[in-house]
Amino acid sequence: xxxxxxxxxQEINVVRASVETHKVxxxxxxxxxxxxxxxxxxxxxLLSKDSAQKRAQAMLEQKTKEQxxxxxxxxxxITKLQNAASSAYGKDKAALKEFRIGGRGKPRTxxxxxxxxxxxxxxxxxxxxxxxxxxxxxxxxxxxxxTKNLNKRAMPKDNGVDVLWGNYIININS
Length: 174
Fold this sequence. Notes:
Blueprint: H1 2-21, H2 23-28, H3 33-89, H4 93-98, H5 110-126, H6 128-133, E1 153-157, E2 160-165, E3 168-173
Antiparallel strand pairs: 1-2, 2-3
C-alpha cells in the first residue's frame, strides 16, 4: 500500500509541476486555480491516510508481540504446573491426565489457551497442597479476578510479572 501511495504522490508532484509550468495555457482553456488546488488537497489527504495506516499497522504489530509474550509466559506457567504435577503424582496416569500431561502439548491459539488456563486453575486449586510440596508456588495462579474486559497485557511487579488474561491473573515469578 505504501509503495502505491508513494507512486501516487510522485505523480501528483509531476502533474502539479507541469500545471505550474503551463498555468497560463491551462487558464485559457478553463483550467483554473480551484482545480489546481485539488491536487494539493488530494496529496494531503493521501499522505494523512497513509500515515494513519502506518500507525495502525505498527500498533497491531505491537499488540501481536505483547500477545505472543503473554502466550509464552502462560505456556511457561503450564510447564511449571505440569512439572510439579509430574513430580507429585509420578506414575499415576489418571492424575497426570487431569493435568493434561502427555497430551497435545501447549495450546497455540488464544481461545485454547484461555480454556486451558481456566481448566488448570481449577485443577491447581484442587491439588494445591501436593503441588506446593513439589515446588509450585501458590502465587503462580491467583483466584480469578472479576473485572470487566481486561485486555491482555503484562504489568511489572516487584516479585515477577502479573499477566492479566481474560478473567485470570497469572503471576510468573522470576
